[in-house]
Amino acid sequence: MQRIEAAVNALAEANLRLDAGPVDYALLAVYFALVLGIGSLARRSVSSSLDFFLAGRSLPAWVTGLAFISANLGAVEIFGMTANGAQFGIPTVHYYWIGAIPAMVFLGLVMMPFYYGSKVRSVPEFLRLRFGRFAHLVNALSFALAQVLIAGVNLYALSTVVNALLGWPLWSSVLVAAVIVLVYTTLGGLSAAVYNEVMQFFLIVAMLVPITLVGLHKVGGWSGLSDRIRAVNPDAAEQLNAWPASNLTGISNATLSVLGIVFGLGFVLSFGYWTTNFAEVQRALAARNMSAARRTPLIGAYPKALIALVIVIPGMLAAVLSPELAAYKAAGGTSTEGVTYNNAIELLIRDLLPNGMLGVVITGLLAAFMAGMAANVSSFNTVFTYDLWQAYVVKGRPDDYYLRVGRAVTVLGCVFAVGTAFIASGYNNIMDYLQTLFSFFNAPLFATFILGMFWKRTTPLAGGVGLIVGTAAAVTVDQLVRHDVLHLAGQGPSFVAASAAFVLDILVSVGVSLVTRPKPDSELVGLVWALTPRDQLKADDTAEDAGWYRNPAILGGGALLLATVLNVIFW
Fold it and tell me: For 525-551, what is each residue's pLDDT tens digit?
């Protein structure tokens, strides 16, 4: 607590405060009213636990697709990726075009048929069907912990913005945001979260595009930004070119750096996050049918690919337009001004935008962090209620009992998030913290999933043991780096930790599977690729799902093509 208060006081001394006017506060008031109004309206459609946790599986693909992306546009994007843009430059786009799009396409084309077709209510529940109770319990506990930690990151980011820009006390900005998210998710469940996320998506875009355009105009366009970066950065070539991204990975050897990006980020971390993270998958499970569920991540892939430009470029702009951040970067990440890379977006707002537009931007920031937190809280309450409380604590009660539990657990999740908000304050780039969490929780889970889905011999015991060993491997690498046994800079530690978690999880799972008994084939239909009839994996292409533009393969191919073209442009 003392650390975060000191950070906020330093920000105040750095003259980051803005003089918000009546118009700005009016926009904030309208936004809060809309958010709570959507929650109140959504409450009318909640009559069962399925309505509360999965919106009754009734939402159209365009809604779930936009919510899928908006749920990800929290502190991870707005603070983490602009901080990365300020620190590393263009190589940050790898988190999108290598580290997101291929995995989102894989989720839509390959994994969603298994998730949606099995009618599971959560990702841990799929693990229970495939591996049994041991792996299920391990994953449910680790996922619940991860979600409250990440929800805390969104709350921390939001509190620093409100405190620095509007002058609200830290404790009040954290509590106000937590209470608003709590109210609308408790009232309307996932429906309220999803429809708010759709609105928040457009608010976030309305925030990012003007900042990018005004900033580029001020520096003389892309060529002017490039010239400024070359003038002050000895590693300007690495800042302005996507490959080999040695500054991002901390690996000086170009070949090994590319390998770290492609395998550590593009395969392990990316596929681990996008294909097994229930905070994202939950939006697709709320779709009205298999076709809409498969299209959810594919629709989301298009804005995901393009939004990189209005997140990474603002970070780069802040590093040359903000005197404090430029000095911080020139000093190698040390400064007496009280700023860090995390303040890139705030500094850019302060230096570029007038009142009136300030209200739009602050509202966009609030929308982003609240969308991220709502995604974490709504997935936390689902997993806690279904996968922990109902499965292991209180079994066999009527459905309305679990609906009440879900609402109560929403309160618990928000309380935990308030507590974990202070952990994020110890990082000058919260993307370092987030990638560390992903290497702990998502990388081993993806290894277990991919092995269990494509190798029917994988046994129940192997599923649980592999998860534990993989997580332990990632934690070990992290500690070796922290104690200077391994020397890695940038976000290389998380790439190496994720790779170690994946490889060891696979090796241990294979070894354990060879000496233990697998499930019979009859219990694995619909859970393992080779044992599932192909017609069960197909989406309906008739009636409202007809049309070539709704074909999942075409949508997926188009997203991959777009990511490839963007990679070539910024090579």
Answer: 888 888 888 776 666 666 676 677 788
- Cβ proximity of 439 and 488 under 8 Å: no
* Three-class DSSP category at 231: helix
- Reading the block at residue 368, the tokens are 């982003």
The answer to whether 188 and 403 are in contact (CB under 8 A) is: no
Which residue shows structure tokens 């298009």? 302
User: Which among 78, 12, 91, 2 has a CA at the least distance from the CA of 434?
Assistant: 78
Q: How far apart are CA 400 and CA 375, in angstroms?
A: 23
Give the whole-angstrom CA distance, residue 50 versus residue 517: 34
- Token look-up 């191919």 returns 557
Cβ neighbourhood burial of 152 (10 Å; 0-12, 13-18, 19+): buried
Q: What is the 3-state secondary structure (H, E, C) of 466-534?
A: HHHHHHHHHHHHHHHHHCCCCCCCCCHHHHHHHHHHHHHHHHHHHHHHHHCCCCCHHHCCCCCHHHCCH
CA angle 74, 79, 80 (to 5 degrees): 90
Distance of CA 301 to the CA centre of its chain: 13
* Tokens (6 digits) for 17: 């405060």
The predicted-structure confidence for 375-419, as pLDDT tens digits, reads as follows 788 888 889 998 999 999 999 899 889 889 988 888 888 888 877
In Å, how far from its chain's centre is CA 377?
A: 13
CB atoms within 10 A of CB 58: 16
